[in-house]
Amino acid sequence: MQEPEEKKIALELLETEQAYVNRLHLLDQVFYTELMKEAKTGKTVPEEVVKMIFSNISSIYQFHSEFFLPELRKRMEDWNRNPRIGDVIQKLAPFLKMYGEYVKNFDKAVELITAWSEKSPPFQELIADIQKRKVCANLTLQHHMLEPVQRIPRYELLLKDYVRKLPPQSPDRGDAEKALEMVFMVAKHSNAAIAEMERLQNLWVVYQRLGLEDDIVDPSNELIKEGPIQKISTRNNSTSEKYLFLFNNMLLYCVPKVIQVGAEFQVHLRIDVEGMKVRELKDTEFPHTFLVSGKQRTLELQAR
């Protein structure tokens, strides 16, 4: 008897889950535990650094090893009597939100490993020692750490495949489709978490360049565009170098600081986007010029 296609995919899910739990065990019980033990002696790196590198890997490992893998195994052993996995995955899906934290932290974790490997030879040696073990299969710590980042997209692909192969009258169809939708939402949630983190990080960098003025620092702002601009002075027919930051709610007209200690720019003027008008000017002497007029002021500017 040929095994039905959907059962083959469910078995593949079980096999990859077992391999994944082994990888999580290596990360949590070997790398994290041993690096933490050394950190406590004060000879390698601060304990805080080890915690930051591994984020919430312990919770992820516990969830998969103590709950999801056993549930999946039980279900596959009982497949002939009860051929379904959709309901088990529905129970799993909400917990996958835990990955948001791990995924968000991933780039930072890799940077920390690199930085502390250079700073602390004992730290580097301990990692190298663990990497030499058979269980590591000649792969680096960073490589193993990438696995949780890739796991949710893997669930999504396997589940898509599973739903596609299910016979129309399968008792698992409704549950499996709902499970797929839930996993898809979590994958989106984790991507959105990364995008949001990057946005805030970039915004913070811009605020530092502007000198962290209280009334400007707001996490909800959206930076749309920035760049150098020439300010035209009609009085003496000359131009001077300025810099613009356009946010969703304001235009910052800045002067580059000559001595760049601390902030890079000084904010000279802030024009509210609400009610602001931009008009192109036809000026033969100064091409690419335009007028920005807002509640606060009107500026005549020239682009490159």
What does this entry show, briefly?
GO terms for molecular function: guanyl-nucleotide exchange factor activity; zinc ion binding. With 304 residues, the chain is of the alpha+beta class.
CA-based gyration radius: 28 Å
> Element order, helices and strands?
HHHHHHHHEEEEEEE
Widest sheet: strand ordering: 4-3-2-1-7-6-5
CATH architecture of the largest domain: Up-down Bundle
In the CATH hierarchy, what is the class of the largest domain? Mainly Alpha
- What is the overall silhouette? elongated
How many strands, what sense, and barrel or not for the largest sheet? 7 strands, antiparallel
- CATH homologous superfamily label of the largest domain: Dbl homology (DH) domain
Features:
single chain, Dbl Homology Domain, Chain A, seven-stranded antiparallel sheet, 8 helices, cytoplasm, metal-binding
Task: Walk me through the structure.
The chain has helices spanning 5-41, 47-54, 57-77, 86-92, 99-119, 121-131, 141-165, 173-209, and strands at residues 223-233, 238-247, 250-256, 265-272, 277-281, 289-293, 298-302. The protein is α+β, with helices and mostly antiparallel strands. It folds into 2 domains: 5-210, Dbl Homology Domain, Chain A (Up-down Bundle), CATH 1.20.900.10; 223-302, Roll (PH-domain like), CATH 2.30.29.30. Strands 4-3-2-1-7-6-5 form a 7-stranded antiparallel beta sheet, with no helix packed on it. Helix 5 (99-119) packs antiparallel against helix 7 (141-165). It is elongated. The mean pLDDT is 89.
